[in-house]
Prior knowledge:
mainly beta; 1 helix
Amino acid sequence: xxxxxxxxxxxxxxxxxxxxxxxxxxxxxxxxxxxxxxxxxxxxxxxxxxxxxxxxxxxxxxxxxxxxxxxxxxxxxxxxxxxxxxxxxxxxxxxxxxxxxxxxxxxxxxxxxxxxxxxxxxxxxxxxxxxxxxxxxxxxxxxxxxxxxxxxxxxxxxxxxxxxxxxxxxxxxxxxxxxxxxxxxxxxxxxxxxxxxxxxxxxxxxxxxxxxxxxxxxxxxxxxxxxxxxxxxxxxxxxxxxxxxxxxxxxxxxxxxxxxxxxxxxxxxxxxxxxxxxxxxxxxxxxxxxxxxxxxxxxxxxxxxxxxxxxxxxxxxxxxxxxxxxxxxxxxxxxxxxxxxxxxxxxxxxxxxxxxxxxxxxxxxxxxxxxxxxxxxxxxxxxxxxxxxxxxxxxxxxxxxxxxxxxxxxxxxxxxxxxxxxxxxxxxxxxxxxxxxxxxxxxxxxxxxxxxxxxxxxxxxxxxxxxxxxxxxxxxxxxxxxxx
Length: 484
C-alpha cells in the first residue's frame, strides 16, 4: 500500500483508473476541480481543469484509447467523461493530450419517465459508466437510467434514450461488468434497493424485467421461520421495521415491510405454530403486538404494554391449566424486565396475566441474597414441559399444564441466555420420532446439553466450553439428530 499526496488544496470525492494504463487515475473533487494523476514512482500531477461549477460525482474513462468520435484511430486522446451535481451536463475531455473539452452532452432537464417523480430531498446526483466505445450509461437526477449513443464526427449529436425508470429515488451508484455476453447494470438508490437492469437488448430478443433486490437499513436483531410454512421468513431490525419474506418466490426477491409505526428496536419475533397468518413481535421499549399477514389493512394488533423494558423472547403455548387439543387457542408468553407475562386475550385494553399468579418459587429464591430474574423461556414441542432460564444460571423445569415446578437444573455460573429443545422429528428420518426429543441445550458462557429421563429427571449429557463471551443463540439442526 502506498500513499500519494497532492501538492494542491483539493477535496477528492471520486476517482477512476484508466483501463488500458493502470498508472493513470482521474480524481474528481469538490467545487468542480478535476485532476489526472500519474502513480508512477512518487506520483505526478499531469493535468488539472475546471469545467464544472460544483462537486464532481462520477468519472468514467473510454474503454478504448482512441476516440470513438473521430475516424482517425492513430491518435490516443484517452477520453474522460465527468459529471457533477450541477446541470452543466456530461463533459468529455481529452485526458491523454491537452485536456481540451471534446464535447459536452446536455442531459434532460425534465423527467423522461411517464410517471411522476418526487425528489423529497431536492438532491442533484448523477453517475456515468462508459460500457462501449460509443455507448455511455448515465443516471439522471430523476431516478432514471439513460443511454447515450455517440455518433462519429459529432454530425447529428448523440442519441439519448431512456433504459429504465424502476428506481423511485435518486440513484447513487451504478456498476457494470466490462466483458460479458449479457450486459447487466446494477444500481442502488436511497430506497435501499439494488436493481439489475438488462442492457443492449435487441428488438428480436425477449424482453427481460429488471431484478429488484431489497437491502436493509439497520442491524438484524431477530428472525423467525414459520413452523406451518417453512417458506415464510420474518426478521426484525434496529430501525423498527419488520420484514416478511416468502423465500419460495423465485421470480422476485420481495421483502414486505410490516411495521411503519414501530419506533423502537424489534428484538423478538414468533410465528404462530398453528395459524399461518399470525406473527407476534416485541420491541426494545416493552411493546408487544401481533401481525395478521392475511390482511392488507388493520393487520397490526397492539397489545397492552406492561413491561417497560426490552422483551427478548416470545413463545406461543397453551394457557395454564388448559388441556391441549388439536385446535386449542394458544396464549402468548413474553419475557422481559425479569418477568414473564401471559397474553390470553389479544386486546389492547385487557391486562395480561403474570407467571407468578400461577406458580411461586419462594422456597428456592428466598434463600438467595440477590433477586432472581427470568431471562429465557422455551417450551417443549408437545407443550408438556417448559424450561425457564434465570439470571443466576439456574433453569426451572415446569409442568406444561399447571406450570408447577418439577426440577431445578444448576450448572451455569451466569444468566442463561438461550434454551432450545431438540426437534421431535428430523427430515432425514421423518417417519419416526427422534429418540433425542427429550434433549434440551442451554447457553451462557458455555453450552450444556441435558436429557429428560423416563422419570422426568434431568441429567447432563455433555458440556462445551471455550467461548469467552456469552452465547446468545442456539439452534438444533432440523435435518439430522444431535447437530447443534
